[in-house]
Specification:
mainly alpha; Glycosyltransferase; two-stranded antiparallel sheet; two-stranded antiparallel ribbon; 15 helices; about 50% helix; globular; 6hp_glycosidase-like_sf; glucan 1,4-alpha-glucosidase activity
Length: about 425
């Protein structure tokens, strides 16, 4: 198995921390979407999925605050501080601003606009992408918590998109709880209010069909979404207030997901509704984020291993760049066609982090070696640590494609590197 260079990992961690910082509270940036007549200045506490200015020609426009991506970034804040200790004051302020931004943008008393304000400024070629007036007018109460993304200035998303999505509040609640556990001074009355709001919403909606993490139609009960909802509710149930209701809902979700058990592979299907043998890398990411060492969603559970192994077999066979590799670059799912359906950095790094965590728990040298193999793939295709990590790498050449600077990729690298360090330290303890 190839071994990634330690100096490259350290340099890439510093670069990833810088990329994350550049996307958070980026109040100095301005996004002018000429075709819509839409000018956006990010608000304090917002997280840009990408700082790139792009308009789907062909690079996608990710200059938005995605709830999912922002929660993944929030979870990685302590890792960014570790990579760049001089940034601690920035991150302290950002966490406070993030909580305020989240509270304001999910305020149940807030009302959406009666009509799409871009109707009068959008060009004919862009008007077809505008969000319908009725959707915007209906934004009130819990509807705000169903929004997968917002404009980076905190106003509603004015474009058509897949809704509702129910993983964001779960990931945000879990990230806040994890952050407070790791950095107690991050706790505050405002943080507790946001956690309580997200958990109360999950009590109402968790387990229903919704748009999944890759934002593909139709609504369904994705394993990723159900697992992250379970994780948030189970974590919340250990914090006191309302614990019985949260614990009961978590048990309900665990029982529900048994319907996604896949007899063909022994793993978890992409969703309860999916056909037999249909696997999705997002399921492994949900298990990684839940970070459990026991129970049905444990990182070492048989279904986790079977899901990961099934995905490895799939991607080893469909991506030309995986020929003769000891471990395959990881995509999303077998029939993915977005930007030609390529390996993704967040999924490949997620598989590395998951296997480093397994190695730390079990002392399994083969799991560590596989994780190093995935990190080495990233080093091979992104050797310059000062170059941002993209969303995808081309399935034939490995060249960067789709979004060329994805904030999620930066957070995923920090998590994988931290998991590697933890596995190395655990190995010394085991010895």
């Amino acid at each position: 198995m190839p071994v990634p260079d330690a100096d490259w990992i350290a340099a890439r961690c510093r670069s990833a921390a810088g990329a994350m910082k550049a996307a958070c509270s980026a109040t100095h940036l301005v996004r002018n979407r000429d075709g819509f007549g839409w000018v956006v200045r990010p608000a304090p506490g917002s997280v840009l999925a990408s700082t790139r200015i792009a308009s789907w020609q062909p690079e996608p426009d990710y200059f938005h605050h995605w709830v999912r991506d922002s929660a993944i970034v929030l979870r990685a804040v302590p890792l960014a501080v570790a990579a760049d200790p001089a940034s601690a004051d920035f991150w302290r302020g950002f966490v406070s601003d993030f909580i305020d931004f989240s509270l304001v943008t999910t305020d149940p008393e807030r009302h959406g606009p009666a009509a799409n304000p871009l109707k009068s400024t959008a060009s004919p070629s862009h008007a077809k992408f505008l969000r319908p007036d009725a959707e915007l007018a209906a934004l009130h109460g819990p509807r705000w918590l169903e929004e997968p993304r917002l404009s980076a200035d905190g106003s509603p998303d004015l474009e058509q998109w897949g809704r509702p999505q129910d993983d964001g509040p779960a990931l945000r609640a879990s990230a806040l709880m994890s952050l407070i556990d790791a950095v107690p001074e991050a706790g505050s009355a405002q943080a507790e209010a946001m956690i309580a709001r997200d958990l109360a919403h999950l009590l109402q909606v968790a387990g229903r069909p919704c748009i999944g993490p890759w934002e593909e139609w139709p609504p369904r009960r994705c394993s990723f979404t159900v697992i992250v909802q379970w994780d948030a509710l189970e974590r919340g149930s250990r914090r006191g207030k309302g614990c019985d209701r949260l614990a009961a809902k978590a048990r309900e979700l665990a029982a529900l997901l048994e319907m996604a058990a896949d007899p063909e592979t022994g793993g978890w299907r992409e969703s309860i509704e999916a056909d037999a043998g249909t696997l999705d890398a997002a399921t492994c990411l949900a298990i990684l984020h839940a970070h459990r060492d026991t129970g049905p969603f444990a990182m070492t559970a048989p279904r986790t291993a079977a899901t990961a192994a099934g995905l490895e077999r799939i991607f080893a066979g469909i991506y030309p760049i995986n020929r003769d590799r000891s471990v395959p670059a990881i995509g999303r799912w077998e029939s993915d066609v977005y930007f030609d359906g390529n390996p993704w950095y967040p999924t490949t790094l997620g598989f590395a982090a998951l296997h480093y965590r397994i190695a730390a728990l079990t002392g399994d040298a083969s799991a560590f070696a596989k994780a190093d193999g995935w990190m080495s793939i990233v080093q091979h295709y992104a050797p310059d640590p000062d170059t941002p990590l993209p969303e995808q790498f081309d399935r034939r050449t490995g060249a960067p494609t789709s979004c060329l600077n994805l904030t999620w990729s930066a957070a995923a690298f920090l998590e994988a590197a931290a998991a590697r360090d933890a596995a190395i330290q655990a190995t010394f303890r085991i010895r």
